[in-house]
Amino acid sequence: MRQPPADVDVLLLEGTHVGREQGGPRPSVSDADVEARCVELFKAVDGIVLAAYSPQNIDRLVTLHRAAKRSGRVLVLDLYAATIIAATGYDTIPQADWEGVRVFVPLSQRIRVKRAEEFERTERIRAHPCLPRAARRPSGSPRDDVPRVHGWRP
């Protein structure tokens, strides 16, 4: 990227198989390799870390959760990822109501949920929402110190 956004410290892109060298296929990267590298990055960067991946890739989501946990960070999902996770029916996959996991739902999406009366999508996260001010870490506070926001309704 020639002109990256100024306020992003790290951007992780999904694609362990992206980019083949001219001499042949590049060795595959395991999820353990991805997790180890993410832990390094998460610990090295003081600010927010963003990861671009498909939430349908459950293995990658679990890998990111494990890396966040190992590096003392909170994994913040979007509502789509939280909905996919809940739809799996597996309680061994990081859930929206787990400690160390939050779900960010922008105001525009909260309005859509309310208008469509799809409250089941937000029921599990109601006690642990992540709103923009809650996601900002005060200077000097620990990485996992994301305050809860009470009284939020979709």
Outline type: globular
Tell me the span between the first and last alpha carbons: 36 Å
Tell me the helix content. 25-40%
Q: What average pLDDT do the residues reach? A: 76
Structural class: alpha/beta
- Our estimate of the beta-strand percent is 5-15%
Strand elements, count: 5
Plain-language structure description:
Helices cover 33% and strands 12% of the residues. β4, α4 and β5 (129-130) form a beta-alpha-beta unit. The longest helix is centred in the N-terminal third of the chain and has 14 residues, at 31-44. The model is unreliable at 134-154 (pLDDT under 50). α1 packs parallel to α2 (58-70). The chain has 154 residues and is of the alpha/beta class. The chain has helices spanning 31-44, 58-70, 79-88, 107-116, 132-135; strands at residues 10-13, 49-52, 75-78, 101-104, 129-130. The strands form 2 sheets. Strands 3-4-5 form a 3-stranded parallel sheet. A two-stranded parallel sheet has the order 1-2. The protein has 5 helices and 5 strands; from the N terminus they run βαβαβαβαβα. The protein is globular, with a radius of gyration of 17 Å.
Quick synopsis:
The chain has 154 residues and is of the alpha/beta class.
Topology diagram in text:
Layout: E1 10-13, H1 31-44, E2 49-52, H2 58-70, E3 75-78, H3 79-88, E4 101-104, H4 107-116, E5 129-130, H5 132-135
Parallel strand pairs: 1-2, 3-4, 4-5
Helix pairs in contact: 1-2
